[in-house]
Amino acid sequence: MSAVLPYSIAAAALVALGLFGLVVQAAVLRKILAFNLLGGGVFLLFGVVARRGAGAGATADPVPQAIVITGLVVAFAATALAVVLALRMHQITGAATIAEAAEDGFPDK
Amino acid sequence: MSGTTPGGWLLVLALALPVGGMLLAFALGGRTAERIALGVLGLGTVLAGMIAAEVYAAGAPLAYRLGGWAPPLGLRLQADGLAAAMLLTAALVLLAVALFGRAAQATPPGVQEARAPFTFWTFLLALAASLAAAFLGGDLFNLFVALEMLTFAALSLACLDGRPSQFRSELRYLFFALIGSVLYLLGTALLYGAHGTLDIALLAERAGADLPTLLAAALMTAGLLAKMALFPLHLWLPPAHAGAPPAASALLSGLVVKAAFVLLLRLWIWVLPPVPAGAGAPLLAGLGAAAILVGSLIALRQERLKLLVAYSTVAQIGYLFLMLPLVLAGDPEAAARAWLGGILQAASHAFAKAAMFLSAGLVAGALGHDRVAELGGAGRAMPMAVIAFGLAGLSLMGIPPSGGFTAKWLLLTAALGTGQWWWAAVILGGGLLTGGYVYRVLAGSLTAPPAAAPRPEPPAQGPERVALALALVSVALGLVPLASFGLVQIGRPILGGAP
């Protein structure tokens, strides 16, 4: 169990850092990076789960690893979509942040 | 659990049809994409009807084991009453939105294919596929993938116009959705670590009130609430839904948030044991009640029509959460009523809100603006759109006879039946506030136009008829005798009994 402990702590730290960055950072690019950090933490946790759940004779449970691969594809697609949207927003409006209120009278509390 | 049932192939077809259609439409493009989308969505409606009939006739959920592998290693598709009802609702709304979109997203013969229609038709099919996956999935990780596909498809539809003002609100939507899905994924990691499976039926047997399960449920619930924009996580929804083109707004408000709600029900009613779920449910219902009151009050003060409709979505989402403490209260009769009430609310809101956004889009398109104070003359120029808005409003308010009335009545009686009268007060108060903002729009559009105003261009008849048809369906749901809604009870776990 102690062999996976450093990885569990690293996963928790990555999740915490990523979540903090995603909420606190205003710049879109930083938010996207923070999302990837957060995702990395979750995938590492799946790795820990795979190692802990290893059956007799196997070094790791393959199901969480399959989940991580699928999750990576999804996170990659999400990152690509976010980057494209951020780029278009920067090209059209010159803005690199989503911090301000939208223009159509939306009450931003 | 059960293996593949007779008719299980219908579930595979319900998923494969829109995916195959999307790929074909993507490859062929142009006018063919529109034909494929209309054909596939039409067939999808027939298929959803067949699945619902099959579930109703069998009185038991349909299931299909992919590749014949049994859970926990294999994956399962399953359609219980909840899935069948939501699938049918989604199929009808998608078909209506596709018919509505024919006017704006047509590619006339001989014209080079443009980006917006091509995106509209392919992503409409992508949305249909991801909704089917979210309703039919029997495995928490597959549901995660469905939820992500749903976000991507919905976001692409919302950004269809490419207007500068859209990017900020749609990016904000994307970030909320991404936080939501990562939290959900974190929860599935904990559940898999604790129980070694993500199959919903197996988890229901294995999960207890242990720490990993509760922590996972809390994380997944928080993630799903962010996706559903439950108060106080609602700030992203109104600009994102109001800024999108009308067809996309109708789908976002009517269907996309409902998929996350179905996942929430899977988690709270199926996976979680009744005791911790019953303890947590009043908290969620409290947030729902706050959403009803705050959303309606803000809607009452909106100056723009589309934002008003979007805030009304925030409020109507709140009603869905009121069913949780009533279903989990332990009274089987009240639970059945609240369950039907909640699902009927989801379905009638899908029809009514789609009708509202479509008719609001028609009104805004014809007048050239959507300021609520200057809607004068809209009723004369486009009576069908204004009537559609009014009928949909009746359903949202809960005035009989309408689907919204039956839904709210069932929730109300379940609340009184289990002695939780405070939810009944919220339901009644929310109905009054809804009446207030619907009246503002109707009264505005029925007044005479200012003399100096230019005569609004009357819109094409087809889209107006679609909006009216959707509104009529949301009203007609209230005329169906209650006994014929037995479908939605099929496959629901009964408290204290085996699922």
UniProtKB/TrEMBL annotation, chain A:
Q: Which GO terms describe its cellular component?
A: plasma membrane
Read off the Pfam families from this record. Answer: Oxidored_q2 (PF00420)
Compartment(s): Cell membrane
Superkingdom of this entry's organism? Bacteria
- Where are the bilayer-spanning segments? 6-28, 35-54, 66-87
UniProt xrefs under InterPro entries: CPA3_antiporter_subunitC, NUOK/Mnh_C1-like
Keyword line: Cell membrane, Membrane, Transmembrane, Transmembrane helix
Its membrane topology, per UniProt? Multi-pass membrane protein
The protein's matches in PANTHER family, at most eight in alphabetical order, are given as: ANTIPORTER SUBUNIT MNHC2-RELATED
Q: What family is it from? A: Belongs to the CPA3 antiporters (TC 2.A.63) subunit C family.
The name on file for this protein is Na+/H+ antiporter subunit C
TrEMBL record, chain B:
Q: Name one Pfam family in it.
A: Proton_antipo_M
Q: Where is the NADH:quinone oxidoreductase/Mrp antiporter transmembrane domain?
A: 138-433
Gene Ontology annotations of biological process type: ATP synthesis coupled electron transport
Question: Keywords for this entry?
Answer: Cell membrane, Membrane, Transmembrane, Transmembrane helix
An example molecular function term from Gene Ontology annotations: NADH dehydrogenase (ubiquinone) activity
**Taxonomy, superkingdom:** Bacteria
Q: Which residues cross the membrane?
A: 6-29, 36-62, 82-104, 116-137, 143-161, 173-194, 214-237, 249-269, 281-300, 307-330, 350-369, 381-400, 420-439, 466-490
Where it sits in the cell: the answer is: Cell membrane; Membrane
Alphabetical GO CC annotations of the entry are: plasma membrane
What InterPro entries does the entry give? CPA3_Na-H_Antiporter_D, NADH_UbQ_OxRdtase, ND/Mrp_TM
- Record bears the keyword DNA damage: no
Kinase among keywords? no
Which membrane topology describes this protein?
A: Multi-pass membrane protein
Family, per entry: Belongs to the CPA3 antiporters (TC 2.A.63) subunit D family.
Q: What is this protein called?
A: NADH-quinone oxidoreductase subunit J
**Native source organism of the sequence:** Roseicella aquatilis
The root-end lineage is: Bacteria, Pseudomonadati, Pseudomonadota, Alphaproteobacteria, Acetobacterales
